[in-house]
Specification:
The protein is mainly β. Among the domains are: 70 residues, no CATH class; 100 residues, no CATH class; 98 residues; 210 residues, no CATH class. Helices cover 9% and strands 32% of the residues. It is globular and about 70 Å long. The N and C termini lie far apart (66 Å). 53% of the residues are buried. This is Right handed beta helix region. Keywords: Signal. It holds the Pfam family Beta_helix.
């Protein structure tokens, strides 16, 4: 007993020494029974957290806070590192979790598969299923023999479906590999539709999968397989889906899907197409893999020598790091990767900072603020969905916030995401929330100097590079690129988007844009200023630039540069918007008009007024039930909305159906159509054009040919537009700081 007491006293003494020195040390070669000193580090993040908790029970934090130093190496998490109120710092004494300088710390939700576990394929049955060229290149490893038994499940996901953790994925040299698919590039078009299946969007929940004729005979190689999946857009070019195949009939040349798609199945349009995947026979090029879920055998064609590379598989479904109620915590200089769910999750608390981190190769979102919503229905549903708020999961967040636009997702306040790289994620890059929409209280959360790209490996349309909701949050100096889908997707009020660089997004989808907001007139006061948008959109698809969708109001687009916007529905597009101002921008070589306004309640949505404005209408519920637009703070902050629901013709037409007070004012336009505004829908498609300068010549850029759009001091635009402000072009995009020491060329 005396020896045990002595050992305990020594342990406690070492703990105090470590903490009083403001240092706790972690090493992958340490032991959790160690005191956490530099000489005797603990071996896990959880042990470091527990040392911190023990110390703060009896001691105040040292002046300047306390740092947990993490040595370089891999730290595989079998459960989330959860930091709560007990792990908080103070405004002047933060708790800092950081990598040792110059060392790479990789916090993973997966496991390494050693190179020696991979062997040549010898099973003749498997070899017969592989193509001739693949037989000598594909390797195999038995995951079950390595103790990896939880493979997860491939589930239906897509438009209006919950975001769920990914199944097991395979990564090689920190890049996601491709689950064997057909075709290797492009898509297969849907043939003649025999039965579109049930249409949940129309409240048909009979759960009947569609039936259609296939157009490619390669389908016959998959007959009899039970886990073939199709991912694509089955009816509309914005509604992605991922659906299991029930059967393939080579006699009728028909495919039957196991589940419905939200809008049913259609054909005849180029975007009604899909890829087939999870098929061993299609493992036919480097970078592809396949998992036999019965035997646990993984088959992999490595892109380079497997002996010199690193193979990892994802296992953890919970967030890899989760801050839940913690405050004044700094997470910096870490690589967080290879999980099935969220990389870093933040809920409640105040003043946390994620800085200089790389978050990559996760199954859902990279960094996620606020709660999600748990699915409460058995099938795919329509927009008017109600879920149950839940922590650490995304679920059907988009459906829940569609119904409850005022939802306070408990994201906390004054959190920052600074100088991080987020890429190769499954369901969007960063999701920011915070603030109270009913009371118009700002969250003051921000994302700054972050690079976000390749963020739609799984979920597509609603999952942007950066999503934001709530009130009073800021996105600045970020670079967002490499997506066929959305750049930024917005709900809420008085957010600020400034000095961002957004390019090469919205490349192969419909009804999408680099920046989107819509269908809630109370989402007012949002500002886009000093951003650089270029090479966005696809002239063959239905894209918009700044997309102020159904009934958007009060957006200021000021001082931005738009170059080569291939968005055929305009650089700015609105459906019946109010109080939209586009001022002092430079629009250079646009494919289409600078501003396009559609009076859609009088054109393609003719007769839809009652469903939006009537007694049970969507917009009426949003303005009078979710919030009270006729009472403070809305009636005082936004008096321009006071007439929005007033009837013009009782039961048929309301004020909000007509676009009002929109203006294109004092913009420089180089190229594009002669008339900068295109009006769709006659007299109700209001958008004024005032004092804009359009030219086909160089208006005075410093170096037009090489894309330097700073203006010379005596540029022609200053003569043509009185008061035109020269734009801070060089300040748009990423900048150097202590976390981001180099910039892309």
């Amino acid at each position: 007993m005396r020896r045990s007491i002595t050992a305990s006293l020594i342990y406690l003494f070492n703990l105090v020494v470590a903490a009083q020195g403001q240092d706790i040390f972690v090493s992958s070669r340490g032991q959790d029974s160690n005191p956490g000193t530099r000489e005797e580090p603990v071996g896990s993040l959880q042990a470091a957290r527990d040392l911190l908790r023990q110390y703060t029970v009896t001691h105040d934090l040292p002046q300047g806070g306390l740092t947990i130093w993490i040595a370089g190496g891999h730290y595989a998490q079998t459960q989330s590192l959860v930091l709560n109120e007990n792990d908080s710092g103070k405004p002047d004494a933060p708790i800092v979790w950081r990598a040792m300088p110059g060392e790479e710390v990789r916090i993973t939700g997966g496991k390494i598969i050693p190179a020696q576990a991979f062997k040549k394929v010898s099973d003749p049955t498997v070899l017969q299923r592989l193509s001739t060229g693949a037989r000598n290149a594909v390797l195999q490893a038995n995951l079950k023999e390595l103790g990896r038994n939880d493979f997860g499940a491939i589930r239906q996901y897509g438009h209006a479906m919950p975001v769920t953790p990914a199944p097991l994925e395979l990564f090689f040299n920190a890049e996601a590999m491709t689950l064997a698919r057909y075709p290797n590039e492009g898509y297969v078009k849907i043939g003649t539709v025999i039965d579109p299946g049930s249409v949940p969007r129309n409240q048909d929940y009979s759960n009947r999968g569609g039936v259609f004729e296939y157009t490619d005979p390669r389908h016959e190689a998959w007959v009899g397989q039970h886990d073939v999946w199709f991912q694509g857009t089955f009816m509309y070019g914005f509604a992605d889906d991922n659906i299991r195949v029930e059967s393939i009939n080579p006699k009728t040349k028909q495919v039957r899907l196991a589940m419905p798609s939200l809008y049913g199945v259609g054909s005849g349009r180029d975007f009604q197409h899909y890829v087939a995947y999870n098929i061993l026979e299609e493992l036919d090029r480097p970078g592809e893999w396949y998992l036999d879920r019965q035997s646990g055998m993984v088959y992999f064609w490595p892109p380079s020598s497997i002996a010199e590379g690193s193979v990892m598989v994802s296992l953890l479904e919970d967030p890899i790091i989760s801050l839940e109620g913690a405050s004044h915590v700094v997470i910096r200089d870490l690589t967080v990767e290879v999980g099935r769910g969220i990389g870093i999750y933040l809920e409640r608390g105040t003043g946390n900072l994620i800085a200089g981190c790389t978050v990559r190769n996760v199954g859902t979102s990279g960094i996620f603020m606020g709660q999600g919503a748990m699915q409460t229905f058995p099938f795919i549903t329509h927009d008017d969905y109600e879920g149950v708020p839940v922590s650490r999961r995304i679920g059907n967040l988009q459906g829940h916030i569609y119904k409850y636009t005022h939802w306070d997702r408990k994201a906390g306040t004054n959190h920052g995401i600074l100088s991080c790289d987020v890429y190769n994620t499954g369901s969007g890059g960063i999701y920011v929330s915070g603030g109270n929409k009913r009371k118009l209280i700002p969250g003051n959360n921000y994302v700054e100097n972050c690079k976000v790209h390749a963020y739609n490996r799984r979920n597509k349309f609603l999952w942007a590079g950066i999503n934001v909701d709530g009130v009073g949050n800021r996105i600045s100096h970020c670079e967002i690129f490499d997506s066929e889908w959305q750049g930024i997707y917005v709900h809420g009020n008085e957010h600020l988007f400034e000095y961002n660089h957004i390019h090469h997004v919205t490349l192969n989808s419909d009804d999408t844009s680099p920046w989107y907001i819509g269908r809630d007139p109370s989402d007012r006061g949002n500002v886009l200023r000093y951003n650089y948008f270029h090479h966005c959109g696809n002239p063959e698809r239905m894209n918009m630039g700044i997309y102020c969708d159904d009934s958007t109001t009060d957006v200021l687009v000021y001082g931005n540069v738009f170059y080569k916007m291939n968005t055929k529905h305009g650089v700015l597009f609105t459906n019946s918007g109010w109080d939209l101002t586009m001022k002092n921008n430079m629009v250079i070589e646009p494919l289409a008009h600078t501003a396009v306004v559609s009076a859609h309640y009088y054109t393609w949505y003719s007769g839809g007024g009652p469903s939006m404005f009537g007694e049970a209408g969507l917009l009426r519920r949003r303005l009078l039930e979710n919030i009270a637009v006729d009472q403070p703070p809305y009636s005082e902050r936004y008096p321009g909305l006071r007439n929005y629901l007033h009837p013009i013709v009782e039961g048929e037409e309301w004020e909000g159906m007509r676009a009002r007070r929109n203006v294109l004012l004092g913009n420089l336009i180089v190229g594009g159509p002669e008339d900068p505004v295109h009006r769709m829908g006659g007299e109700h498609a209001q958008f004024e054009s005032v004092n804009n300068f359009r030219t086909d010549e160089d208006p005075g850029f410093v170096d037009y040919e090489n894309g330097n759009f700073n203006l010379k001091p005596h540029a022609e635009v200053f003569k043509r537009i009185e008061g035109f402000e020269a734009l801070p072009f060089d300040q748009m995009g990423l900048y150097r700081d202590e976390f981001r020491t180099e910039l892309p060329e």
